[in-house]
């Protein structure tokens, strides 16, 4: 895992393979979507009913098992969603902020036809206490709709740094309308500083020993600023890279891990060869930043560099969704062969 340069070769099925020493090859004829995409965890209907009622719960941390526990007892006087039938089918859902995707959601069972549901359920998170203390607990109540259009009934947000951990009793809390921190607080995931360059086939001169037999895309990942601080000391981060539509291991490249830093400097260059100019319209460079842990890695944010047309080689794909900034960055590279194009791009959910 060199932090200076990596190289990988891409051969498209309509071109003959040109062997290159030290390169891997893969076939981009098959189209596959990105696995593990982070979907919106706040999907639902927020405007149909007003938040009302209360929720009873207690918080505890099990030191022995290193487990955060949310004991959801019951709710009272919730809003009625279906006024014709006079019913709501409520359940309780929890996240740990700022990175709701990292720890995932927990939710209770659904209680049907009641505005006073009783749960007596414990929602559990395996998490270190020192990490927990820089989180916020978002607890929300929802009406479960059979068609998937769930309705928001209210929420409460708890700053765990200031929570009284000696208080293990069940207490009542009023449900509130949607908070600004829940809506906007997790949107900023950091900014990536990078440069890209396209070297067309034969552009360096026929006699040059460095002249590539096919085009190359060079990606220079310089640094990332303002990553989500998942631990008191920062975050252990690295960057993954794919050229979509290929998501195989042969396509996969990554930087080294930078530890204990929310502003990591990678200074890592990746070279993908096998490109022809027409392939730039249908390919997409996906760069994602991850938090490294022993058991699993957690998604922090990413960018997708392409034309954002929604199509790749005539096939509709969900990953061809580049933002205006990302599209402009890619187009500038396409129009300025052999020149490094510099950019600062915000990380986002993919």
UniProtKB/TrEMBL annotation:
GO terms for cellular component: exocytic vesicle; plasma membrane. It comes from the Eukaryota. One of its GO terms (molecular function) is neurexin family protein binding. Its main location: membrane. It holds the Pfam family C2. InterPro entries: C2_dom, C2_domain_sf, SYTL1-5_C2B. This is Synaptotagmin-like protein 2. Keywords: Cell membrane, Exocytosis, Membrane, Repeat. Residues 51-173, 188-320 form the C2 domain. It is found in: Cell membrane. GO terms for biological process: exocytosis.
